[in-house]
Recover the amino acids of this structure.
């Protein structure tokens, strides 16, 4: 008996030892959880472990057609690899469009122990090529109210396993089913594209919303960008709104039925009297049609739909970015009566946001509330000042609601958005003074997950972080726009000034992929006699454009000419940054030809390696860029060199050997040309603050003179405005380049400076809540500048805050934060800082503070990743009270301790 008991105890011990220590979690398909429509399928997962040095050595992935996921569609077999991102199905495996599939994964840890299978996740293959619905329209040619469309449909008697509605209403649409909006917080859907070439559609799982056998699908259409005909001239419109919609019903028996748009659908004019993405929506509730989307509604007097003509998208694709949504409404912090004639009031909502006005009151039939949004008030009159919203070019940000007199009525526009802090409310048809809650404000933006955070001991640094983060999310509205109230365009040059910072704050992977597709789709045309920018924004010429060369703006019809060298560099930088920050190697393969084409094009325009065309370091703090030392030919040449360096690394990664040789030779040629033309060895400068920051980034200074270069930057600052005289390209670099080259204290001093000529003017005097087009570092800027008050291009400094103040960075050699660099640049005046980033491998974080002459530092490295931790030279470090005993790795001439995954408490003294 004792022998049996001993054997059982031994067996139990062996079983305990055999338990795995690492588990796959957070399964995603194309970075989405259980997507209802996905085109090119790829799988990713994170790892969970309670032990340090947790890693994956192999995985096995199954794809099946049923929830138990027996692998009847595909089995990968055991794959010896630590890959967790973007695992694809072989092209020999065919997936049926519209069908739901299930997948699961298990992994082997570093000791060879296998985890249990995960719970099955799901994805549904998109219907890009299998639509069974026509494009329909009203047939109206005149302006007027926008339509309701409806279709009563009969569902079979069998048990419904799943019902999915696929919807594309152009310009934008809102889906209803059986009398209710399916997602009432979803606005301006789908996201903007080049509608003549491509349109996106949204997918909605409506299984739970079906009611018996008789159901009704309803759609409300708005103008959106497809029918935008009020701003930038009539040439911006593609035509009157059109609709394509189908519902796929799958029964438990396996039978599938499809109900799609055709001429049997009915339409009638609705209560949306007018709609424009710039100038707002006008809604008349007295025109509402009760029960219009109920199955029992009598639509015999409604009009028959017609097949749509005009501009029909050549192809369709599932929308794989989150939709734009309206979030919880906010009350104004104050309101006061305007001095204008009538019942006019001003509401102050405290912060500048991309938002919608929400109307909610009980008023008699016919009373009309009209709102106008602004970013500023005139400090003398306390009336709204609409100058910064571009009123001369795009009109007023105006919405209105006419009450039906049915008790409490609530309405929010869904086919427009505005950038505003203040709202002017005019009450027409009533002398009643409005209450504070008659109007509230709902923030709106693409529903991107927030993945990053930051906080430190300095108020001004925190403030700069907060307004950068707010400015970024305000600009994400289906595409990255330059400003949310004026142009609302996807300018290429703006994006590469801040995308790295945004990549650490929000889940941007799919968002940038969509925007890159916009750029490629827009550029895919050859034209004669096309506008090219030569110098700044007012000197240009006309020439033939090759297909594949990007425009200044994407997507849409407002293009503003072929991209200048310093704007078009986005087509190289954005894919590379997706690789570095998200480990997205597929994007490099997909866009390699476009990247290469751009770099070779710029090389063909250079004279002796120097690129003379461009707009320069845009919107500098003080003087124009031709006077602050950084000339256009330097910045454009520097971007060309940066692009060449990226192409060298990309060609090497992808095995493009012939291209690699050309890029390497061209990079060296351009490098020598820039140094020869611009470097002043006596001043150790390339001309100005931005020029020297870019030169440090690109390694143009002799290695033994890099610290001298930071002194040249500070000399230029101290002999000039005593502050940064840089535009958006300099601002996104100068903090990091100073900090990484021995001048951390100087960088910190610049960003925390108070008084005139400083960011302190923004923080203490003006108390700005977002970043202006030209940063107000002088207190009298209000009288001088009426530019946009929400321009994310000015937020590139956020990279310095996250990567150098907090000290959290990805490493190019092991991208996507598979290796995390921990390297805060400490200064005497900062007591503590902390940051987190939820990477595609999991959450990584750093939190350091000074305590009694010691540096106390807590870091987290996600399972499956490792960390490079920089211990200040001459200091000793302990981990959990014991001396650090990890390996050493040298990177860029500095030594790092190599930490495996896990949580660590480090003390440095």
């Amino acid at each position: 008996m004792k022998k049996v008991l001993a054997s059982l105890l031994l067996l139990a011990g062996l079983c305990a030892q055999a338990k795995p220590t690492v588990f796959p979690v957070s399964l995603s398909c194309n970075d989405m959880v259980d997507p209802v429509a996905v085109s090119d399928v790829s799988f990713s997962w994170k790892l969970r472990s309670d032990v340090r040095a947790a890693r994956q050595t192999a995985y096995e992935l199954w794809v099946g057609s049923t929830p138990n996921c027996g692998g009847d569609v595909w089995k990968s077999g055991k794959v010896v690899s630590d890959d967790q991102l973007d695992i694809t199905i072989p092209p020999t495996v065919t997936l049926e469009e519209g069908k739901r599939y299930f997948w699961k994964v298990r992994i082997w840890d570093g000791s060879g122990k296998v985890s249990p299978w995960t719970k099955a996740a799901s994805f549904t293959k998109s219907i890009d090529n299998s639509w069974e619905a026509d494009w329909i329209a009203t047939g109206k040619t005149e302006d007027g109210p926008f339509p309701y469309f409806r279709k009563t449909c009969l569902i079979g008697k069998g048990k419904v396993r799943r019902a999915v509605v696929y919807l594309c209403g152009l310009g934008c649409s809102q889906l209803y089913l059986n009398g209710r909006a399916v997602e009432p917080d979803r606005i301006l859907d789908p996201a903007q594209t080049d509608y003549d070439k491509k349109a996106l559609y949204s997918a909605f799982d409506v299984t739970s919303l079906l009611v018996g056998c008789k159901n009704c699908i309803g759609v409300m259409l708005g103008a959106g960008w497809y029918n935008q005909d009020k701003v930038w001239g009539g040439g911006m419109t593609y035509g009157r709104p059109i609709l394509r919609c189908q519902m796929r019903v799958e029964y438990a028996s396996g039978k599938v039925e499809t109900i799609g748009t055709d001429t049997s659908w009915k339409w009638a004019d609705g209560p949306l009297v007018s709609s424009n993405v710039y100038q707002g929506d006008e809604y008349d509730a007295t025109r509402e049609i009760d029960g219009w989307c109920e199955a029992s509604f009598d639509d015999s007097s409604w009009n028959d739909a017609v097949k749509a003509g005009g501009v029909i998208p050549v192809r369709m694709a599932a929308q794989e970015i989150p939709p734009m949504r309206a979030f919880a409404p906010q009350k104004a912090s104050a309101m006061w009566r305007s001095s204008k004639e009538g019942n006019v009031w001003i509401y102050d909502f405290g912060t500048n946001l991309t938002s919608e006005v929400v109307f909610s009151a009980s008023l008699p039939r016919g009373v009309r509330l009209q709102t106008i949004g602004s970013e500023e008030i005139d400090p003398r009159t306390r009336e709204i000042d609409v100058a910064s919203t571009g009123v001369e070019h795009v009109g007023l940000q105006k919405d209105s609601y006419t009450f039906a007199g049915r008790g409490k009525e609530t309405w929010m526009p869904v086919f427009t958005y505005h950038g505003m802090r203040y709202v002017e409310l005019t009450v027409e048809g009533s002398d009643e003074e409005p209450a504070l809650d008659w109007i509230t404000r709902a923030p709106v933006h693409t529903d991107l997950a927030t993945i990053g955070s930051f906080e430190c001991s300095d108020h001004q640094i925190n403030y700069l972080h907060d307004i950068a983060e707010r400015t970024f999310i305000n600009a994400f509205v289906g595409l990255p726009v330059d400003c949310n109230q004026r142009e609302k365009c996807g300018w290429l040059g703006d994006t590469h000034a801040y995308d790295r910072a945004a990549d650490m704050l929000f889940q941007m992977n799919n968002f940038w992929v969509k925007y890159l597709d916009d750029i490629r789709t827009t550029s895919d045309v050859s034209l004669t006699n096309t506008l090219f920018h030569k110098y700044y924004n007012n000197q240009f010429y006309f020439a033939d454009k090759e297909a594949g060369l990007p425009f200044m703006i994407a997507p849409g019809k407002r293009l503003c000419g072929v991209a200048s060298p310093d704007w078009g560099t986005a087509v190289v930088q954005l894919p590379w940054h997706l690789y570095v920050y998200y480990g997205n190697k597929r994007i490099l393969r997909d866009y390699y030809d476009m990247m290469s084409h751009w770099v070779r094009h710029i090389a063909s325009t250079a004279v002796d390696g120097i690129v003379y065309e461009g707009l320069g370091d845009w919107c500098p703090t003080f003087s124009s860029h031709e006077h602050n030392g950084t000339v256009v030919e330097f910045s454009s040449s520097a971007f060309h060199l940066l692009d060449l360096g990226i192409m060298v690394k990309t060609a090497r990664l992808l095995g493009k050997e012939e291209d690699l040789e050309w890029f390497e030779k061209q990079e060296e040629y351009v490098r020598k040309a820039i140094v020869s033309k611009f470097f002043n060895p006596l001043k150790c400068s390339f001309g100005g603050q931005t020029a020297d920051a870019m030169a440090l980034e690109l390694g143009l200074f002799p290695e033994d003179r890099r610290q001298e270069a930071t002194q040249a930057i500070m000399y230029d600052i101290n002999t000039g405005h005593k502050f940064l005289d840089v535009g958006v390209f300099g601002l996104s670099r100068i903090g990091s380049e100073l900090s990484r080259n021995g001048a951390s204290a100087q960088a910190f001093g610049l960003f925390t400076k108070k008084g005139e000529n400083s960011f302190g003017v923004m923080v203490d005097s003006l108390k700005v809540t977002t970043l202006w087009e030209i940063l107000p570092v002088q207190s009298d800027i209000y009288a001088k500048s009426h530019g946009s008050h929400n321009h994310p291009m000015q937020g590139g400094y956020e990279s310095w805050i996250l990567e150098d103040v907090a000290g959290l960075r990805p490493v190019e050699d092991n991208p996507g934060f598979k290796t995390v660099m921990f390297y805060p640049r400490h200064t005497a005046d900062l007591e503590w800082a902390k940051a987190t980033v939820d990477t595609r491998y999991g959450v990584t974080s750093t939190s350091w503070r000074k305590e009694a002459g010691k540096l106390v530092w807590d870091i987290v490295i996600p399972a499956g990743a490792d960390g490079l931790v920089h211990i200040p030279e001459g200091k000793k470090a302990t981990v959990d009270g014991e001396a650090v005993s990890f390996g050493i790795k040298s990177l860029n001439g500095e030594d790092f301790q190599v930490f495996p995954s896990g949580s660590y408490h480090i003390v440095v003294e």
Notes: The chain is about 20% helix and 30% strand. Residues 632-654 form the longest helix (23 residues). Confidence is low (pLDDT under 50) at residues 1-16.
